[in-house]
Amino acid sequence: xxxxxxxxxxxxxxxxxxxxxxxxxxxxxxxxxxxxxxxxxxxxxxxxxxxxxxxxxxxxxxxxxxxxxxxxxxxxxxxxxxxxxxxxxxxxxxxxxxxxxxxxxxxxxxxxxxxxxxxxxxxxxxxxxxxxxxxxxxxxxxxxxxxxxxxxxxxxxxxxxxxxxxxxxxxxxxxxxxxxxxxxxxxxxxxxxxxxxxxxxxxxxxxxxxxxxxxxxxxxxxxxxxxxxxxxxxxxxxxxxxxxxxxxxxxxxxxxxxxxxxxxxxxxxxxxxxxxxxxxxxxxxxxxxxxxxxxxxxxxxxxxxxxxxxxxxxxxxxxxxxxxxxxxxxxxxxxxxxxxxxxxxxxxxxxxxxxxxxxxxxxx
Length: 364
Description:
alpha/beta
């Protein structure tokens, strides 16, 4: 017959409640008592009936992470970090890949699968500020990214404008005067592309350089292929470029491929900076300078905020968290010699902001 909690309690000489406190991680138990209970569990081979516990607590100990696509290095690394942070909280992560489809993003918020987990960490791509009402939900939610602001939910975002400005100013400080941007989205008013392009423009102005529309490379999805195509199209049109700021690292890798294909030396002829600081840029030739937006802190903060919502009252004020970001210099900008360690060129402080809410917890 299956070993019960009562059997463990008898063997350890404690109450059933004490056994329950031990197996559920209650911290305020004397070490000797905890030791006896754990020895009894090991000896008898007791296994916690999580199904019964979840029925009582209405908890699944699972959370959902919804991202556009795991083929992009940034989201793959984000998923890995979220899983690791969740494991420390004894949580399992279910991954939803939306493909940037509006229908699938709406389903993430409203579909039946949402009920399978205790909360949602969501990085929307297609939903926008016009859809802010969809985020007024009755379950724990943390939003990532730059598509939606001031929703009634905790939000972890990036220092996009300031980081892009710092990257552009750094390229100018290296003596570069024809700085291209790769990955712009024409007509976008809010989102990573719009914010980073705005930072690029501010950086040009700060460096006393004119804005030239010919140096703005439009791209669709931010893949290696679009970075290569955009960079190649610009060069083949005869646009003179001596530096490139790619709006993510995947496009930076693509741009590097296009530059090499045209026998342009990086950084001798063209300096290059990406954004996201994914692992791949440490192993390219040359290694690529990049903005680290605080990715590790983004994942851990998102999990911590979600756990706090799951465990705590639903009427607390929402928070927007911006991690500290850094500009990491590598070989592609000549900030380090070939084979030398990377160095931090600039650091931009983040912060925590309380999102104003009304008496019902909704954003005012």
